[in-house]
Amino acid sequence: MSAAPDPAFEPVTGRYLNLHLLGRPHRLYVEESGRGIPLLCLHTAGSDSRQYRAVQNDAAILERFRVIAFDLPWHGKSSPPAQWHTQEYRLTSADYVEIVRTVAAALRLERPVVMGCSIGGRIVLHLALDHAREFRALIGLQSGAHVDPYYDLQWLHRPDVHGGEVCAGIVSGLIGPGAPEAHRWETLWHYMQGGPGVFKGDLYFYKIDGDIRDRVAAIDTRACPLYLLTGEYDYSCNPEDTRDLERRIAGAKAVIMPGIGHFPMSEDPEGFLRHLRPVLDAIRAGGDGTA
What we know:
This protein has nine helices and eight strands. By secondary structure, the protein is of the alpha/beta class. About 45% of the residues are buried.
């Protein structure tokens, strides 16, 4: 009988962080790997930190960056607060900013780099506008100042449909056509596992409360560099949305990623990492290079 192969553990460690958020006790799930400059990663609406699995396993990045990803309250392995069943979940700009800043402070991160996708890419703009000096750099993935509603959000939380399958169905068209099949379906699986009404609640921020188009020109990239990486295959944040930000924000640096959709870090990890690594090199060097 041949010996079984040794188990192959990844370098990612997961723990639970107990802290007060928005005036209430919360238990947040946090994963991290690597060492060096803290890189705090924010997942998309309705999903969780598993989207950053490739970044958290990239040996070259882990030599220089401490990569941290956490599940927002109500998402993934982070439970909602007590008495959650008495309220409707709805994410606001003020709450989202407070969550990011509170988590960074609780983890004692000194001027971290923050990278967020979709709703995370939007909140990066809010952080750049109001709290730029707290961060070494900000990276917006699929980052636009606003989005016009293009489907009925009520379908995301109804008793007569399977919520997870509807959420996955809605986002499936945002994945680039060249995404490897395994990564495509893992990205969708994360959406199928979301809690009732959570995706809908996140989109309140994305489509309504988080609209920042009349303020982005005031972002000062001298206080904190801003990088924008956008996949070309995305009708939620299309390349022109990102180019508009680049035109309006002096010093912002945008890269359009060919063939990639709305979930670059999970749908096409290797394609995304080719664009991310030069940005991280520039941040580490303190320069302003582009991918």
